[in-house]
Amino acid sequence: MSPLQAVPLWVAVPVAILVVLGSTLTLIGALGFARLSSFYDRLHAPTLATSWGTGGIIIASALMFSVIEGRAVIHEFVIGLCIVVTTPVTLMMLARAALHRDRAEGSAALPENMRIRPERPDPPAQD
Description:
Helix content: 55-70%
Protein name: Monovalent cation/H(+) antiporter subunit G
Largest sheet: none
Keywords: Membrane, Transmembrane, Transmembrane helix
Transmembrane segments: 12-36, 48-68, 74-95
Shape: elongated
Distance between the termini: 83 Å
InterPro entries: PhaG_MnhG_YufB
Structural class: mainly alpha
Order of helices and strands: HHHH
Strand content: under 5%
Pfam family, one: PhaG_MnhG_YufB
């Protein structure tokens, strides 16, 4: 008898729903990444996939293995937290690097108001 055969229905249904929801959101993020044309548009699609999609799958996995093993499985939440925290930071760094590059090259991909770096006010003179 497999351990999965012993999983009660009240656990299997929410796990199945969370896995389907998480994988659907991940698929939507991947399709958005493939279909969107510019680099800046493509930055938004992976955040959906990694935050909500990964979250659904991790919650389902933690729930399933907590029931199978008979103890709370929390290390999966640590992995998920690392993914959810690092993805937006990484994408923000990529966006800033691309913006810096496009401004330096005078790229036509940027809107007119973003091609020029905003000027910083002069610091006040110290006496």
